[in-house]
């Protein structure tokens, strides 16, 4: 029985890894570890199909070590013992341990001394956050790396490589993949390369050749094989981004009906990951301080949607869209931050005032560090008039409160109150040094 295409196309070395250049690119951490022959146990976490197993396979292929694969949920302690015995004989074994967050205490206790000695180099793979789900004893003996969803270009590159590879891929088949079909394959799988390659293989092997002897893969064929409909059949392939843009702008404009319409189109296309990411952006970008509770509810709804999966995920998503549409809205906080960043980028920064500098070291006082700092909690209303911004920016005002929600109204009132205190007490502010 032939292995699936995604299995056959696993990288044999780091150069063949698709994406994840923040880990395996030139000068990056995993490549440095391999090139220096200083491998250590690690945990790779991220969404399914993004390359965790591929990285482990590539690491093993770039070394002379034996490579074994186990599953923490289904394989037994005896399976681990077999790997440990092999490591004793051969020196070192690289062990890919899938679902490492499911490792029970018995298996963990057996594994720990082998990780300590370096006899077993464990590469744990998980879709869960390891800082929450993995035992501290394992975490303390591993390095933790996040594996990110692949981009459209990453998926396209891998698909084209599989189509041309005659040894492991589909290069012996007379395939013609339409551009629109390739675009949909790269988008519809939401960064999951395994799904993209397996959908491609199904399309190639289940589509009969035409009269010219060509296996023509059209958009409709790919839609059927990945079970995801394209948003529309527009010739330029822009509908995907147009619908996402319209979705956010409809919520920003408080049009519930339009927002639900665009949500429906994204749900029909199966774009759960895109919907969830966009809703969290909207919660903080467009709702913001006008209604922080709505942003928090959005995060909870996204977590529920991700756990439920489609079609049930549409229920918390619909609740959230209505909530965000009808919520008061404010972008004041992030606009203020962008203005501050803009000043920094054009060189308007300046030195931190001496009275705010760190004074927790010997000799700080002689350098005037921290001298004259006034502790706000020692004053009425936990406020005292002193300068915090560098001299170059001491009169800068970035935050401009909005009055669209009760929460930000209260923040705005406190902000205005502090500005009035500053005006009254300006003459009592501590002296600060001039910027160089």
From TrEMBL:
It comes from the Bacteria. GO terms for molecular function: ATP binding; ATP hydrolysis activity; DNA binding; enzyme activator activity; single-stranded DNA helicase activity. It holds the Pfam family AAA. Keywords: ATP-binding, Nucleotide-binding. The keyword Transmembrane does not apply. The keyword Kinase does not apply. CDD domains: AAA, HLD_clamp_RarA. One of its GO terms (biological process) is DNA-templated DNA replication. Belongs to the AAA ATPase family. RarA/MGS1/WRNIP1 subfamily. This is Replication-associated recombination protein A. It comes from Enterococcus phoeniculicola ATCC BAA-412. The lineage of its organism: Bacteria, Bacillati, Bacillota, Bacilli, Lactobacillales.
């Amino acid at each position: 029985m032939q292995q699936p295409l995604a299995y056959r196309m696993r990288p044999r070395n780091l150069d063949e890894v698709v994406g994840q250049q923040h880990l395996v690119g030139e000068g990056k951490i995993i490549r440095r570890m391999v090139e220096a022959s200083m491998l250590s146990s690690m945990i790779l976490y991220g969404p399914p199909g993004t390359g965790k197993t591929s990285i482990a396979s590539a690491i093993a292929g770039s070394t002379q070590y034996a490579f074994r694969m186990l599953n923490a949920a289904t394989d037994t302690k005896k399976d681990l013992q077999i790997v440990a015995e092999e490591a004793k004989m051969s020196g070192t074994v690289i062990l890919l341990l899938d679902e490492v967050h499911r490792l029970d205490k018995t298996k963990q206790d057996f594994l720990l001394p082998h990780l300590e000695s370096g006899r077993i180099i464990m590469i744990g793979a998980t879709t869960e956050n390891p800082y929450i789900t993995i035992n501290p004893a394992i975490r303390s003996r591993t390095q933790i790396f996040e594996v990110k969803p692949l981009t459209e270009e990453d998926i396209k590159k891998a698909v084209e490589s599989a189509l041309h590879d005659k040894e492991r891929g589909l290069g012996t088949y007379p395939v013609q993949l339409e551009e629109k079909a390739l675009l949909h394959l790269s988008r519809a799988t939401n960064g999951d390369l395994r799904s993209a390659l397996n959908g491609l293989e199904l399309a190639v092997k289940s589509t009969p050749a035409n009269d010219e002897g060509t296996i023509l893969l059209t958009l409709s064929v790919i839609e059927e094989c990945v079970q995801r409909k394209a948003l529309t059949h527009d010739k330029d392939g822009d509908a995907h981004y147009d619908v996402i843009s319209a979705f956010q702008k409809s919520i920003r404009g408080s049009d519930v009906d339009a927002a639900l319409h665009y949500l429906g189109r994204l749900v029909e296309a199966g774009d759960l990951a895109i919907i969830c990411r966009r809703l969290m952006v909207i919660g903080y970008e467009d709702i913001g301080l006008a209604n922080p509770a709505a942003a928090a509810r959005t995060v909870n709804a996204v977590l529920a949607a991700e756990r439920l999966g489609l079609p049930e995920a549409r229920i918390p998503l619909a609740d959230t869209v209505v909530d965000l549409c009808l919520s008061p809205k404010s972008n004041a906080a992030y606009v203020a931050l962008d203005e501050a960043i803009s000043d920094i980028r054009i060189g308007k920064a300046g030195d931190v005032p001496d009275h705010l500098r760190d004074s927790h070291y010997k000799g700080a006082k002689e350098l005037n560090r921290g001298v004259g700092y006034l502790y706000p909690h020692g004053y009425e209303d936990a406020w005292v008039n002193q300068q915090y911004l560098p001299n170059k920016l001491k009169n800068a005002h970035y935050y401009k409160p909005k009055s669209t929600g009760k929460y930000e109204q209260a923040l705005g009132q406190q902000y205005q109150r502090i500005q009035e205190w500053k005006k009254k007490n300006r003459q009592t502010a501590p002296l600060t040094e001039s910027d160089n």
